[in-house]
Design brief:
alpha/beta, globular, Spore Coat Polysaccharide Biosynthesis Protein SpsA, Chain A, 10 helices, two-stranded antiparallel ribbon, seven-stranded mixed beta sheet
């Protein structure tokens, strides 16, 4: 299932659907495409924000789930600092971050609900995946081919795969793979192209979810901070099995798509 968001790039959603049909190969070209509207935080009325809170999509930090010791340590060491979505008075702090988090969660919830409404048997849902793109995603034929290859190597127990990795994240992956190469034969080493994310995560420009991963995300709502670190917290606490594709297969406007 492919979800994309309407935005100032008005044609991105239908163009992505057509692009995947033309360049997606045997698997991705047949993926159903749904055009799902984004939650636009900058223009959303107060009632819409309150509705998000009423449905446990977002909330102030006071409602955050308890963090594990590793995640607390990462924040204590200031390795990362997360921006909250709402203040204690439930007023929006950053409309853009709120829009990203709400759009992701609404798309994930909509996808799972669609399967329930359509009566898709539970045993079939485990073979379905959700692609989510933000409105600054850059997709190329090479990137789609790389995504197809990644699907073939992906751990069947994965929950989420990040498709737009940063150069720094992948540099650490290459270093780790080189060091492991001194100790282990290639057949015993994890794939350097699908890196397990534990203490850091990359960007949200393109994400792939398994059905199990989607349910785990929804069961840990509300989102209380910027989405990329919220995902990272779920990974570092062992709640989500998160991987990142190296090199990136989906680019972001202004950056090279595939390296």
């Amino acid at each position: 299932m492919l979800h994309s968001y309407w935005s100032s790039r008005r044609n991105i959603a239908p163009e992505l659907c057509e692009f995947f049909k033309a360049h997606g190969g045997d698997t991705l070209s047949r993926a159903p495409c749904r055009l799902f509207p984004a939650f636009r935080g900058a223009t959303a009325p107060r009632e819409a924000v309150l509705d998000l809170m009423a449905h446990n999509i977002v909330a102030p930090e006071t409602h955050a789930r308890p963090l594990g010791w590793l995640t607390k340590l990462l924040y204590w060491l200031r390795i990362s600092e997360a921006a909250p979505l709402l203040d204690e008075a439930e007023k929006v702090i950053n409309p853009s971050l709120l829009g990203i988090a709400a759009s992701h969660m609404l798309a994930i919830r909509n996808w799972t609900l669609e399967m329930s409404r359509a009566g898709v048997p539970p045993q079939e849902r485990v073979n379905r995946h959700l692609l989510v793109f933000e409105d600054d995603a850059v997709v190329t034929a090479e990137g789609v081919a790389a995504l197809g290859r990644a699907l073939g190597r992906l751990d069947r127990c994965y929950d989420m795969l990040g498709l737009d990795s940063t150069d720094n994240f992948c540099a650490l992956s290459r270093l780790s793979d080189s060091l492991m190469g001194l100790l282990l034969p290639r057949a015993w080493r994890p794939s350097p192209e699908l890196v397990r994310a534990k203490m850091s995560f990359s960007r949200n420009t393109g994400l792939l979810f398994s059905y199990k991963g989607a349910l785990r995300v929804l069961s840990n709502l509300p989102v209380t901070r910027e989405a990329d670190l919220w995902y990272r917290d779920l990974a570092s606490d062992g709640v989500l099995s998160v991987y990142v594709a190296c090199p990136r297969v989906i680019g972001i406007q202004g950056l090279t798509t595939v390296k």
